[in-house]
Amino acid sequence: MTDVAALLVTCAGCFALTLVSAVAPWVNAELVLLSFTTTASSPAMMAALVIIATAGQMTGKMALYAAGHRGARAPSERMARILGTWRPRCEANPWRADWLVLVSSTIGVPPFIATSLLAGALRMRITRFVVAGSIGRLIRFGALALASDLIVGVF
Question: What is the pLDDT of residue 75?
């Protein structure tokens, strides 16, 4: 296998596995990213893998957003009341929803899988969701890759 073919397989594998991890919580995106960055031959390759992992995650999260957005009705009367209360609040102050998505995508609290569904259900603008989520994932994955590189460098 040539170097270019190996690079393409690595990038495609990273994207595919992080996409799956976005919708299947039992597949851990952080472990996927760590497994790929350990094979990175340069800082540029590591940065590229962080960007690819972010793209994979956000592609999957957009599917969850769409599922939340398309939901014909809330699963319960209580949830319908909650959504009815929060939707006008998020529309009046969209930056609050942006911050929630940013924090969730960066530190994982609340879980980003739930935040993605909720953002769709609350009718958050998709561009705001993608920008906030991508920034958070880049921070999270970049910090993880950097930390692992520093630890490996020490040993």
Answer: 74
